[in-house]
Amino acid sequence: MFPQTLTDGYRAFLDDRFARERGRYETLAEGQSPEIMVISCCDSRVSPEVVFDASPGELFVVRNVANLVPPFETAGEYHGTSAALEFAVQALKVKHIVVLGHARCGGVRAFADDAAPLSPGDFIGRWVSLIAPAAERIGPGRGDDYLERLEYATVENSLTNLMTFPCVRILVERGRLHLHGAHFGIATGELRVRDPETGAFRLAVPEARLSPTRLIRCQDTGSSGG
């Protein structure tokens, strides 16, 4: 049976939002033209449309475990994230790509803990192996502080991998496409945005600070602990 929760939610959508925004949906039926692509984690607690209070058609979103972007390559058989990236850049011609990480990321923890496979395919383990370069850059560590730094480093790594795609690199170099890193705190509601000049992640809206915070920056730590 189809989940009753979804049926109830759909009914509420029809009675409220769809009724209020029917004209928008009729326009969107003719095509989409979002200017922003968001690469986010598939974690159910982090919805880009909710975090950014976006209306239908405003964001082109791809979600995967740990908001990862693989490096450019053509040898594999399936490229879900790469396909979405290709469509966003080449067909939709988005102007911005945002890699949105988040606190308490299960994918990052699975990599850090070297978690046992959940199935013979070990799809999660193989996928989060993409985090390895980020982990190598910040050095070994343990505990919540290390996991938090690894979350930020994973965003950085995805930004680096984005630049391995020729279609992305060329447009960035021409100033027609802009890459951004961000991190969302689930419990605090805080959004930190990466400063492209310094690599520091700063509060997007400082005056809306909800809890004690600190400046976070991904740094090489060599062999020092986390």
What is Rg? Answer: 19 Å
Mean pLDDT across residues: 92
Low-confidence stretches: 219-226
Strand order of the largest sheet: 2-1-3-4-5-6-7
Number of E-type strands? 7
Overall helicity:
25-40%
Total number of helical segments?
9
Q: Can you summarize the main beta sheet? A: 7 strands, mixed
Structural class: alpha/beta
Measured between the Cα atoms of the first and last residue, the distance is 48 Å
Q: Indicate the overall shape.
A: globular
The SSE string, one letter per element, is HHEHEHEHHHHHEEEE
Strand content: 15-25%
Explain how this protein is built.
This protein has 226 residues and is α/β, with parallel strands linked by helices. The chain has 9 helices and 7 strands; from the N terminus they run H-H-E-H-E-H-E-H-H-H-H-H-E-E-E-E. It has a 7-stranded mixed sheet with strand order 2-1-3-4-5-6-7. Helix 3 links the parallel strand 1 and strand 2 (59-64). Helix 7 (132-138) packs across helix 8. The chain starts with a helix and ends in a 9-residue tail after the last strand.
How would you sum up this structure in a few lines?
The protein has helices at residues 4-20, 22-28, 48-51, 80-91, 106-113, 123-128, 132-138, 143-162, 166-173, and strands spanning 36-41, 59-64, 96-102, 178-184, 191-194, 200-203, 216-217.
